[in-house]
Design goal:
With 213 residues, this protein is of the alpha/beta class. It has one domain: P-loop containing nucleotide triphosphate hydrolases (Rossmann fold, 3-Layer(aba) Sandwich), CATH 3.40.50. It contains 9 helices and 8 strands. The strands form 2 sheets. It has a 5-stranded parallel beta sheet, sandwiched between helices. A 3-stranded antiparallel beta sheet has the order 6-5-7. α1 crosses α9, α2 crosses α3 and α6 packs across α8.
């Protein structure tokens, strides 16, 4: 099955996507991770992405769609994909449907984690991410997990763009561009809105219930 999981930056999409991946043996596509990998590998595309992101903007649709198409059409991941935070706008939504249809695939579930900006700000300003395994922690809530993290605390870093100014920019950009996408999908029978302010395990249980576990 193919799943889309939506939510503003910091809503916990990545955590829930990873839970789904582990439970159902699926493959997670995070546009953020794809873009960060390009930056990390210092590719030409990566340099362009870094310049865009440093201003609080999103990478262009052309860049994102090109990176995604290579994975979507790969037989290894066919009908086994969790789209984490994509599509972000109507053009991307239409592009995704075109790519999937051309490969005889479709979306089976759409999950939307609804969270207020106040909660998002608090979460992002206190989060750290492991540069080795990509696992994310909250400095206020995950003290034990941080101390005992298998990769070691030296790999735990804050993202460069995790500051209040960038958070506000990204949230407002998200609301402006992504709301039409939610409206586009919301009438479909496989669209589900979930309270993303709940604890992680509560959200996970709700998602598993929706997916029929």
């Amino acid at each position: 099955m193919n799943i889309i999981i939506f939510g503003p930056p910091g809503a916990g999409k990545g955590t829930q996507a990873q839970n789904i991946v582990n439970k159902f043996n699926l493959y997670q596509i995070s546009t953020g991770d794809l873009l960060r990998d390009e930056i990390k590998n210092k590719t030409e595309v990566g340099k362009e992405i870094e310049h865009i992101v440093s201003k609080g903007d999103f990478a262009t649709d052309d860049i994102v769609n090109k990176l995604l198409k290579k994975i979507i059409t790969n037989p290894t991941y066919r009908n086994r994909i969790v789209f984490d935070g994509y599509p972000r706008n109507l053009e991307q939504a239409n592009s995704l449907e075109t790519i999937l249809n051309s490969d005889n695939q479709s979306i089976n579930f759409i999950l939307f984690l609804k969270v207020s900006r106040e909660i998002i700000e608090r979460r992002i300003l206190t989060r750290i991410t492991c540069q080795k395994c990509n696992k994310t922690f909250n400095e206020d809530l995950d003290n034990n997990e941080i101390e005992n993290h298998k990769c070691g605390i030296n790999y735990l870093k804050k993202r460069k763009d995790d500051n209040k100014e960038t958070i506000v920019t990204r949230y407002e950009e998200y609301m402006k561009k992504t709301k039409p996408v939610l409206d586009f999908y919301s009438s479909r029978s496989y669209f589900y809105e979930i309270d993303g302010s709940q604890k992680i395990q509560q959200i996970t249980s709700k998602i598993e219930q929706i997916l029929g576990v």
